[in-house]
Amino acid sequence: MRSIANLLQPYNLQEFLDNNWTNKAVVIPSEGKKNFAHLFSWEKLNYILNFHQLKYPDIRLAIGGKVLDEIENANLIKSCQSGATLIINEVHKLIPEIAHFAAEIKSDFGYANQVNAYCSWPEKQGFSSHYDTHEVFILQVDGIKQWYVFEDTIKYPLKEQKSSSFPPPETAAYLNCTLHPGDVLYIPRGHWHYAVACEEPSLHLTLGIHCKTGIDLLEWLVSELREQSEWRKSLPLRTNADSINANVNNLIAELHRYANSKNLADEYSSYLDSLGKPVAKYSLPHQAGFNIFPYGVQTKFRIPKFQRVRIHELPDGCGYKIVVAGKEVSVRGVTSKFMDNLFSTEFFTGEDVMDWLPDYDWEIDVVPLLSQLVVDGIIFVG
C-alpha cells in the first residue's frame, strides 16, 4: 500500500482506512511537502488539447450545474472564457506519468480506477451538488478551490443509482475545506459534494476507485452458473405451486453445494486479476520475434511494474501457468526456483536465468523460454 500511503502523507494510512475509507470525507493538507506537478500541469493539459483528437463525452464542458451539449465543444475556448468547467476523462490513458500512478494505485487496491482532469475558472461552479458511485480522491494540481461535502442519502449507491434520481440532502455540509496545490480530498461513494474555484484558475485530478460489491460477486457467480445446463433449464409451469416451490428449493440446495465445493473467494480474485491490463503492452520489434537478445546472455530483461501475478502449477506437474494482465501463459520444463526468481525482481539478465536453471542449455532451453515470455508480453527486453 505504499502508493496510497504516499498520496495520503502526512495522514496515517491505517487511521485513514479505519476512520474514513467508505465512511467519511477527509482533507489532507500537503503542508508544503508534496505537489502533483510531476503528474499534471497546464502544459500537459495544453498538450492533450493540441495533440489528441478527443470526442464528447471524453471531453466536455459544464457550468451552473449543467453539462453542456456536444455542440458546445466546438466553441471550447469561448465556453472557458464564459466560466465553463472543462473536463477530460481518462487522462491516465493520455499522460504516461498518470498512467504509472494509476497502475500503482490499482496494484495496491486491487480494483480498477480512472483519472479525470478538471479545469475551473474563478468563482464559477461547474457541477451542482451530486454524488459519485465510486470512491473519489481529489488531487489539487494548481490554483485554489473550495469544496463542500455532505452526508449520503443512499448508502453505497450502485452505478445505476445516479444522484440525478434523488434529491440532495437538506442538512449543512459536514466538511467545508479549501484545497491548495498538493492537497488531497477523499470523498466516499454516495457522499454529496460540489466545488467552486476561488480567485484564480483551478486545475485538479480526480482519482476514482471502482471497488467491486457483493452485487458484482453475485453477477460473476451467475455467469459461472450459466455454463451448467441445470441452471439454464426452465422452471416448472406455475400451474402447481408445490412443483415450483420444490424446484426452487432444490436449486437453492444445489447453490449451497456448489458454493461449498469451490473456493469462490480465490476463484473470484483470480477472475478480477484476469481483467487487469498492463500500463504499456507493446514492445516492438521484440514482441514480433526480432532482436530479443541484442547482447546475448548479457541481455537485460524487465518485468512490467504494478501487476498482480498468479502462478499455478500445471496439472501434470511439468510446468506452471502464469496469469497476469488478462493473459494466461503456460511454461513447461522449468523449476519452482525459476518461477520464484522471475517475479521477485524488476530487472534480470540471461546470466541470472542461467543461475536459476543451472542444468539448462542457453541455446537449446533458455533462449526459446525467454523468447516465448517476450513474445507473449510477460517480460520486456530492457
Biggest sheet record:
8 strands, antiparallel
| Count, helices | 12
What's the overall average pLDDT, rounded?
95
Question: Roughly what fraction of the amino acids lie in strands?
Answer: 15-25%
SSE-based structural type: alpha+beta
The Rg value, from CA coordinates, equals 26 Å
Order of helices and strands: HHEHEEHEHEEEEEEEHHHHEEEEHEHHE
Task: Kindly list the characteristics that best describe this protein.
single chain; three-stranded antiparallel beta sheet; 12 helices; Jelly Rolls; eight-stranded antiparallel beta sheet; 3 domains; 382 residues; globular; alpha+beta; 17 strands
Characterise this structure.
There is one protein chain. The chain has helices spanning 2-8, 13-19, 42-51, 76-81, 96-109, 214-225, 229-232, 241-261, 264-274, 336-342, 350-356, 362-375; strands spanning 26-28, 59-63, 66-67, 85-88, 112-120, 135-142, 145-152, 175-179, 184-187, 191-197, 202-210, 300-302, 309-313, 319-324, 327-332, 347-349, 380-381. The protein is of the alpha+beta class. A hairpin with a 5-residue loop joins strand 13 and strand 14 (319-324). The longest helix has 21 residues, at 241-261. The chain is globular. The two termini are 26 Å apart. 22% of the residues are buried.
